[in-house]
Amino acid sequence: MNIRGGVVTQEHCQHFEALNEPHLPYDCETLKPHISANTLHYHFEKHHKGYQTNLSNMLPETYKDLSLKEIMLKAHKEDNVGVFNNAAQVWNHNFYWFSMKKDGGGEPGGQLKEFIDRDFGSFEAFKEKFIAAGKTQFGSGWAWLVYNEKTKKLEVVKTANAENPLTDGLYPLLTCDVWEHAYYLDFQNRRPDYLEKFMQHLVNWDFAACRLSHI
């Protein structure tokens, strides 16, 4: 399932949840110059695939017929921390790769833009809140744009370590990885610069809009 030319199809959106193993939907050169090939290679090959290896080695028999999402939610419910952390990190990373594309960034259009304006006041207000979530996440974690089914509104949330909004009943539309391995080779300790680049040049609004259309 590759994003050719950064174009997200309905197939990409609808079948994302079926991804049960690490999946990088483009080659390591795709996001240059904003994220280097070296960063993508190490991030995917060493970190992302490492979580899958750990998960495969510890997965109980009772989990083996479940999807990755089901494994993650079952492990969270049963407080199986090791399985949850590794399953969630595989899911989170798959979602992160799809949250970016070559020549992305800027502002979305259509229904997604309408929802952002409605729920945050403006795109700039949303962008400021999203970057602030990533900047202020202490240690490792994630910044997310989510849809809250209870309030029928978009929200920005942040999670620590491997945590995922799905465990709180929230529906992810977009994420940015703020673990240091996501940006340190390119930005060193300048996490705010990485977040700015993500918003300006990398965000895959097509994927987020496709996700929103399936709520």
Give a quick precis of the structure.
The chain has nine helices and three strands. It is mostly helical. The radius of gyration is 16 Å and the shape is globular.
> Structural class given helices, strands, pairing?
mainly alpha
Largest beta-sheet characterization: 3 strands, antiparallel
Q: Quote the beta fraction.
A: 5-15%
Low-confidence stretches: none
Radius of gyration: 16 Å
End-to-end distance: 22 Å
Continuous helix count: 9
Average per-residue pLDDT, rounded, comes to: 94
- The number of distinct β-strands equals 3
Order of helices and strands: HHHHHHEEEHHH
Biggest sheet strand line-up: 2-1-3
Helix content: 40-55%
Choose one word for the global shape: globular
**Oligomeric assembly:** single chain
3D structure, described in words:
The protein has 215 residues and is mainly α. The protein is built from 9 helices and 3 strands; from the N terminus they run ααααααβββααα. It has a 3-stranded antiparallel β-sheet. Strand 1 (141-148) and strand 2 (153-160) form a beta hairpin. The mean pLDDT is 94.
What are the main properties of this structure?
215 residues; mainly alpha; 9 helices; 11% strand
